[in-house]
Amino acid sequence: MPGVRDISAESFIKAYSSHLKRSGKLEIPTWVDTVKTGAQKELAPYDPDWFYVRAAAVARHIYLRKTVGVGALAKLHGSKKRRGVRPGHHCDSSTGVQRNVVQALEKIGVLEAHQDGGRKISQDGMRDLDRIATAVLEAEREEAEEEEEEEEEEEEEEADEE
Q1: Which residues 6+ apart lie within 8 Å of 18 measured at CB?
Q2: Which of 3, 40, 113, 114 could form a disulfide with 91 if both were Cys (CB 3.0 to 4.6 A apart)?
Q3: Strands (E), 12-135
Q4: CA–CA separation, 26 and 125 (whole Å)
């Protein structure tokens, strides 16, 4: 059975974030439209659904590893801090944002606390993510088959014209 590892991160995160938005279970804080995602950023994200995308990325990251804490997620989603004339350095993202994402995913049952610290993926969360990954993989296969059929039809038309 195909899983999260078998498809690209971009396509999975896109599909899972749209699933989270459609389901309506994920609690979105009131401050998401104004908050910066890190000290190195100048503005809030332009995408109004960025919280869903971040939640999907966090769920995927924790799925691929055994346990992950908030600090590791902050390091993962950090970026370069531009310091003017001086060389740029890595700066972690906001831990408050990461903590709220993890807590929201914990409330809907995708994540659970690990006894040694950090969070791990729950059985329900693993089943959910695998189901969505399978759906994405099947959709990609169908698109590839349709493209092949169209190419074959075009080749047949060109052969008929000659």
Answers
A1: 52
A2: 40
A3: 79-83, 86-91, 111-113, 119-121
A4: 13
Q: What is the pLDDT of residues 96-118, one digit of tens each?
A: 999 999 999 999 999 999 999 99
* Residue 114 near residue 120, CB atoms below 8 Å: yes
Long-range pairs for 150-153 at CB < 8 Å and ≥24 separation? none
Burial class (CB in 10 A: 0-12, 13-18, 19+), 133: buried
Name which residue leads in pLDDT, 95 or 147.
95
The pLDDT value given to residue 162: 64
- Given a contact cutoff of 8 angstroms between Cβ atoms, the answer to whether 4 and 136 are in contact is no
What residues form DSSP beta bridges with 81? 89
Angle formed at CA 56 by CA 42 and CA 6, multiple of 5 degrees: 125
Q: What angle do CA 44, 51, 140 make, to 5 degrees?
A: 120
Q: Specify the 3-state DSSP secondary structure of 120.
A: strand
Is the separation of the CB atoms in 148 and 16 below 8 Å? no
Cα gap 9→128, rounded to integer Å = 16
- β-partners of residue 119 are 68, 113
Token duo for residue 40: 């190195």
> What is the spatial distance between Cα 128 and Cα 98, in angstroms, rounded to a whole number?
21
CA distance 118 to 105: 13
